Fold this protein.
Amino acid sequence: MKILVLRFSSIGDIVLTTPVVRALAQQVPGAKVHFATKPAYRGLLEPNPHIAKVHVLSGSLRDLVRELRAEKFDFIVDLHNNLRTRLLKLQLNVKSASFDKLNAQKWLLVNFKVNTLPKIHIVDRYLAAAAPLGVRNDGQGLDYFIPEGQEIDLRDLPAGFQRGYVAVAIGAQHATKRLPVEKLIALCAKLNRPIVLLGAPKTRALATSSSWPLTRARATASPRPASLRARITFRRTRRCGSLVRSFTTVAGGIRCTSRPRWCGRRSWW
């Protein structure tokens, strides 16, 4: 069975769809799962062994429809459910199911502070869109597969980080989704482990803000560019250390385990 999953953006939302992809690949007999997204997020999906092929919206929607039509899909799981994906499904004319965005409930909450949202995790709501194919939540959490050649040797990290750390993603596409720096500081102060702050270049100012309670001790390291493609700045605070990485593209804004190829499998956030 050939299945197309639709989710065009963004990083966090796409990572949250990975339990659906895994369930489709492992629980639907003979399933071949394809994924359609934007070019910027291709790298998040291509290393995923549960995805047979990634399609990108790099030109017009018409071009993407032409490409997808040639694949002859049996079913579409729409995890974005916006105007663009509705037009795409209409033109492909394939059986489909869509993620319920609960827009009316969110509108009530934002405008009138009336909370009618169900207490169901977003992952389970995504999985509901694939329920017609008989899949269920396998309880294995999120997937994030690091491509070969982009893994970081723990020996490149400061000694205090080689025994484990907590990663905090401080960036977001929209300002309303970013925590204020004082909230980030309060959060990090409660974590009794070294902290890694993850973000794109535009979040560097936040990571290096003078508001952080830093001591004068500061050291800078420049690991192999081929492995990190980033400059690492190590700061030691009163309560915790922080490793500030400036990426060309944010990758891995999830809590990581000690297994370098496997991040956040049992963590939903």
In short: The chain has two domains: 2-133, 154-246.
